[in-house]
Design a protein that fits this description.
The protein is an alpha+beta fold and 360 residues long. Helix content is 21%, strand content 26%. The radius of gyration is 22 Å and the shape is globular.
Length: 360
């Protein structure tokens, strides 16, 4: 790993080009293997020597937040490095090697103070610059928004603590300071953040409420999508709790509560359950999966796809403890117009066929 960057500098990789909801996974920014003859040395001193511009204060903050791992396990700042130890510095965001330029792009900011801000992101907005998306992102807009804030230096940068897909709408939290970022990232890692999503899925799950548990990892045949590995042979542990809020026979509105935040977790888990998200092209939800595939019903569904041409997924609420004040914070949002219009259309369709009409 290069050693000529700032300790918290970001670097990009095409691997993360289209992974926007990497919510509480931690990404390796530095990896150092101690020499065979390494003498016992406190890890904060060790990293100050090995990583340029890494201040002792930053290293200690990272250690307290659980962002310094030795052989895969978090350590305190007074841990003494041993020969052949594998030291990793991990962060809640993937690396980046491109400059983020300020762009005047409208943002729906629902809360802001000197430490953090909360946004309601529109579907279609990329959160983080990456391969083929170097501008027009939420981060570009945030750099513009924060460019004149008091105390902002030339390298001041909003700090992401989680992300959601380009085509997923909803609540997202951004830190303004490293202190806020490291504390919130730790809360995400410890699963103390409360998050709910709402999604429109094909069909209706057999149980009105349930829990989906199964490792989520890269599909072994297609790395652009994630797959569920119930036997734990690949991927990372993932848990999604779901509840059916309204069934329209052919599709259902569900609420999902996440214990973990793996890439595409809801999308992969719901497909595994047999109920892909409506209009989700990557996971097969952009095809008619319930009902006939011809006639007026087919035309109706095609119109629905045009009405909501993205996976029908919305990050509805977010609850957390303020990283500085300790205050309980909670933010909720309404469904965006495309998803609400979609539900209204299915409501009218089902009502017009009679309450007792089942799927075709």
């Amino acid at each position: 790993m290069p050693e000529d960057e700032d300790f918290f500098e970001e670097h990009d990789s095409p691997e993360f080009a289209d992974d926007e909801n990497v919510e509480n996974e931690l990404y390796e920014h530095h990896r150092i293997i101690a020499d065979k003859g390494q003498g016992l040395l406190r890890i904060d001193k060790f990293l100050m020597i090995r990583i340029e511009n890494a201040s002792r204060n930053k290293i200690q903050q990272a250690a307290k937040a659980g962002n310094i791992l030795v052989n895969g396990e978090p350590v305190r700042q007074n841990y003494r490095v041993k020969p052949l130890d594998v030291i990793s510095v991990v962060m809640a965001h993937p690396p980046r090697d491109t400059e983020v330029l300020p762009e005047e792009i409208p943002l729906n900011i629902v809360y802001e103070d000197e430490h953090l801000l909360v946004l309601n992101k529109d579907a279609g907005m990329v959160v983080h610059p990456g391969y083929a998306n170097f501008d027009g992102t939420m981060l570009n807009a945030l750099v513009w928004h924060l460019r004149h804030r008091p105390g902002a230096g030339p390298d001041a940068m909003p700090l992401l603590v989680h992300r959601i897909d380009k085509d997923t709408s909803g609540i997202i939290l951004v830190a303004k300071t490293e202190e806020a970022q490291t504390r919130i990232a730790r809360d995400f890692f410890d699963h103390t953040i409360k998050r709910t999503y709402q999604a429109i899925v094909w069909g209706t799950p057999r149980e009105n409420e349930g829990t989906i548990t199964g490792h989520v990892g890269r599909n072994l045949n297609n790395r652009l999508i994630m797959a569920v590995f119930p036997d734990g042979s690949h991927g990372k542990h993932a848990v999604t709790h779901y509840k059916v809020l309204r069934s329209y026979n052919y599709v259902s509105l569900i609420e999902c509560r996440l214990e973990t935040g793996r890439t595409h977790q809801i999308r992969a888990h719901m497909k595994h359950l047999g109920h892909p998200l409506f209009s989700d092209e990557r996971y097969g939800g952009n095809q008619i999966l319930k009902g006939t595939t011809s006639g007026t019903y087919k035309k109706f569904v095609e119109n629905c796809f045009r009405l909501c041409p993205r996976q029908a997924l919305h990050a509805k609420s977010l609850g957390f403890i303020h990283p500085v004040t300790g205050q309980e914070m909670f933010f909720d949002s309404i469904l965006p117009s495309d998803m609400q219009s979609l539900l209204d259309r299915w409501e009218r369709y089902v009502s017009g066929r009679g309450e007792n009409q089942t799927s075709q």
